[in-house]
Structure formats: C-alpha cells, structure tokens
Amino acid sequence: MSAALFTAVARTAAPRTALRRFLALDSVVTTGNGLAYAAFSAPLGRLLGVGQGLLLGLGVFLALYGAGVGLLASRRRPPALPVRFVIEANYTWAALSLVALVVWFTPTTAGAVWIVVQAVVVASFALLQQLALREGSGRQ
Prior knowledge:
Elements: H1 3-10, H2 15-39, H3 41-48, H4 52-74, H5 80-103, H6 109-139
Helix pairs in contact: 2-3, 2-4, 2-6, 3-4, 5-6
C-alpha cells in the first residue's frame, strides 16, 4: 500500500495515530458484532443458519475481545507485542471463518455471504494494523 493511500485511509500521516485509529475501529466493530450476536443469537442464528448457542458464545467472546482491543487502542503508545497478537488473531479469525464455511457450517445464503464479508473485514483490519505497526517501527 502506498504511503499516500495509507495516509488517506488512516486520515493521518502519523503511524502511531493510524494504528490507534485502526485498533479503535476494530474494537467498535468487534464489540458491536459480539453484542449483537449475544443479544440476538436466536433470530440471527435462524437468519444465518448458525446455531444459537454458538452465536451466543461467540458474541460473549467477541464483546470481551473487542473491549480488550479498545483498551489497547486507548493507550498513547500501544505496545507492539499485544498489537501483534491482535493482528495474528484477526488473520486467524478470518482464515478460520472461511474454513468453517467450507468444512463445518451449512449456513443459509445470507449466512454464507455474512461469513465471507466479516472475514474480509477482519483481514482488512489486520492488514491495516500491520502496516501501521510496521510504518511506526520504521520511524521511531
């Protein structure tokens, strides 16, 4: 990703600020998704063709994980090791989502589309966070 495109997406040329923004956005989306899964696990389970119990468990996990990412984003200088953990967790989540779609789940059409879309979004968060972390390491 070119520096100009990265700066445009982050809306800042400061890598540390970009990293915090990408972590914060990840936190908001993940926590919101988790709360929706937990609160509406039955209707969402029917819509997506995924078990209610699984969505409830994932919802609680995602809400807690998202809150942790939010705490990391709130740090003036997020430490590299926890940020790397978030990046790797996001890449792993995206990959496992696609594997689950093929191997374990038999979702509805809406569920299949949702799983792919959320995998792409999560992988995008990981990529943006990785680029911001790398850019910040190069300028310090």
